[in-house]
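Subgroup meeting minutes
Present: P.N., E.W., G.H.
Scribe: E.W.

1. P.N. recapped why we're keeping a running log of single-chain structure predictions: easier to compare across weeks, and new members can see raw inputs and outputs side by side.
2. G.H. added today's entry (192 aa).
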Amino acid sequence: MRFIFLFLIGSLMIIGTARSQCTYLVNEFDPFDSTQIVSVEPFNIGYLIPSAYVEEDGNIRMVEEAKLMLSYTENDSISSFFLTIAALERDFFQIKGEREIVLLLNNGHVIPLLNVPDRGAFNSQTNMRLYNHVCVIPLDVYYSLTYHSIDKIRINYKGYKRTLVLTPEQKLAVQDAIRCVGQAAELFPIRP
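Output recorded in log:
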């Protein structure tokens, strides 16, 4: 009986380790400034959408709907997690408030995030505007995201709402990225 129990525990540890292969874009600590920066590689979320760029043969270029990147920064007085969403839009939109990025989790909870408004920049490769939405993730929301996956992300522009739907693979990738950033920052898993 003990052998079966130890085998199951060992198998779960191997599966958990195999699933979370962390690839960091930045993982640095500066001892002079007491500053730590951790960030994972950005990855695609959503589906392929037609861009506003028409190629020479008349085909419309298909592009990823959005990219997502998670990061953590810490210095003497402030430490926080950040969620950055780079979304392509056909038109010019404005963000009307500070909590206009909303996450829908798989447990049904809706979480608005504090974000920095962006006016978007024209992307010549797609003939669309690229909006970078940088959101602050509070610590309690971070720990919730380590156990509950993000199903959808809503971006509330002034007069327009955009919903990014994540595929099952993307949900796992986001959750793995959240855990990886927490492990590098030594905030996940929680140790009593």
